[in-house]
């Protein structure tokens, strides 16, 4: 209809009408484009917020996991420190060494682990939707997961470094004699045999405990630092929900 009026105005050489009708067309196209752009931006903002809600869930899970790891590693550290003190002191009571050794091999002889909850971040990066997140927060998210990857690798190196030493220790000393649960499995539950084996391994126990002290202390530092950065990022994500630009 409007194009017909413009054509008729041209034939009449009614330039004012041509101008007005043309401006109406241009304005209509402009408004339509703006509405489309606004809708597209709104959809992207809603999608970004949905990602942030899901990411917040991952960070909450990561925080709980790290708190658990700190608690476990702290307990193992205390047991390892107790073994080191009992084994390094040659004048220490043998009963203290035996108790510390059996406690260590029952509850403390476990290398640290590090698992990253990153399903939402993987989704964001694989789909290219990370670009939907506001630039400053996007950088914080990327830096956070890069830091977790480094900490996971560091803990894995410590674990891999310790395993050969563990194997040699098991071969050289019948560890299955040292704990009642293990001893029953190995059919070597004679307390006298366990006592003699532990006491004769005092020096090696001190070296083993020294290695585990280093591994546990390093892991605790990584867990605690990761927990701080997790809480910091969680606060930043919460502050950006509903406010994507």
Describe the structure.
The chain has helices at 2-12, 15-88, 94-108, 119-127, 135-172, 180-186, 191-200, 202-240. By secondary structure, the chain is mainly α. 23% of the residues are buried.
| Biggest sheet record | none
Number of helices: 8
Order of helices and strands: HHHHHHHH
Radius of gyration: 33 Å
Described by the principal axes of the CA atoms, the overall outline is rod-shaped
Number of strands: 0
Measured as a percent range, the helix fraction is: over 70%
Mean pLDDT: 83
Q: Indicate the structural class.
A: mainly alpha
Report the portion of residues in β strands: under 5%
- Distance between the terminal alpha carbons, to the nearest Å? 39 Å
Outline the low-pLDDT stretches.
none
Secondary-structure map with pairings?
Elements: H1 2-12, H2 15-88, H3 94-108, H4 119-127, H5 135-172, H6 180-186, H7 191-200, H8 202-240
Helix pairs in contact: 1-2, 2-3, 2-4, 2-8, 3-7, 5-8
Keywords, please?
245 residues, mainly alpha, rod-shaped
Task: Quickly describe the structure.
With 245 residues, this protein is an all-alpha fold. Helices cover 83% and strands 0% of the residues. 23% of the residues are buried.
């Amino acid at each position: 209809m409007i194009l017909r009026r413009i054509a008729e105005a041209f034939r009449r050489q009614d330039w004012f009408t041509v101008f007005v009708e043309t401006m109406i067309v241009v304005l209509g196209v402009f408004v339509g484009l703006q509405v489309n752009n606004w809708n597209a931006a709104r959809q992207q903002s809603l999608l970004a917020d949905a990602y942030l809600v899901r990411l917040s869930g991952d960070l909450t899970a990561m925080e709980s996991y790290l708190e658990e790891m700190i608690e476990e590693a702290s307990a193992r550290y205390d047991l390892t420190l107790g073994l080191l003190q009992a084994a390094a002191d040659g004048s220490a009571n043998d009963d203290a060494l035996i108790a510390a050794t059996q406690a260590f091999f029952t509850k403390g002889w476990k290398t640290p682990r590090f698992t990253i909850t990153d399903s939402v971040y993987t989704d964001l990066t694989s789909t290219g939707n990370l670009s939907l997140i506001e630039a400053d927060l996007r950088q914080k998210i990327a830096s956070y997961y890069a830091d977790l990857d480094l900490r996971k690798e560091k803990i894995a190196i410590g674990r891999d470094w310790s395993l050969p030493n563990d194997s040699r220790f098991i071969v050289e000393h019948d560890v299955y004699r040292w704990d009642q649960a293990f001893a029953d499995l190995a059919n070597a539950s004679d307390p006298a045999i366990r006592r003699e084996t532990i006491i004769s391994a005092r020096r090696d126990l001190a070296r083993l405990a020294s290695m585990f002290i280093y591994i546990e202390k390093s892991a605790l530092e990584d867990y605690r630092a990761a927990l701080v950065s997790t809480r910091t990022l969680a606060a930043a994500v919460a502050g950006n929900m509903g406010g994507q630009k």
